[in-house]
Specification:
Length: about 90
């Protein structure tokens, strides 16, 4: 048997309008590879909803809870991504 590669956390940055495509991408990767643990901010990714609307609080929570221990960031680009300020910040 071959050596199993450890699954690493990947933060997924996207505009909420593209959430269904993001979920399909996560399901497809999990089904075919099971290669990473998806983390993102969205109502359909379990446990990953930040309820506060204050920008500073959200940025601190994202940095401490999601970005700090993620091995990489995956940016899903759709029609409305350019209007989401948080995508720019998450990439930076």
């Amino acid at each position: 048997m071959g050596r199993q590669v450890p699954r690493r956390k990947r933060f997924i940055s996207y505009h909420h309008n593209d959430e269904s495509d993001v979920l399909q991408f996560i399901q497809r990767c999990a089904r075919t590879r099971g290669s990473f643990i998806a983390r993102g901010i969205g109502a359909k990714i379990p446990g990953d909803v930040i309820q506060d609307t204050g920008r500073d609080h959200i940025m601190r929570r994202v940095r401490e809870t999601y970005l700090r221990d993620s091995a990489a960031t995956i940016v899903m680009i759709g029609r409305c991504t350019w209007v989401r300020w948080y995508v720019d910040w998450e990439i930076a």
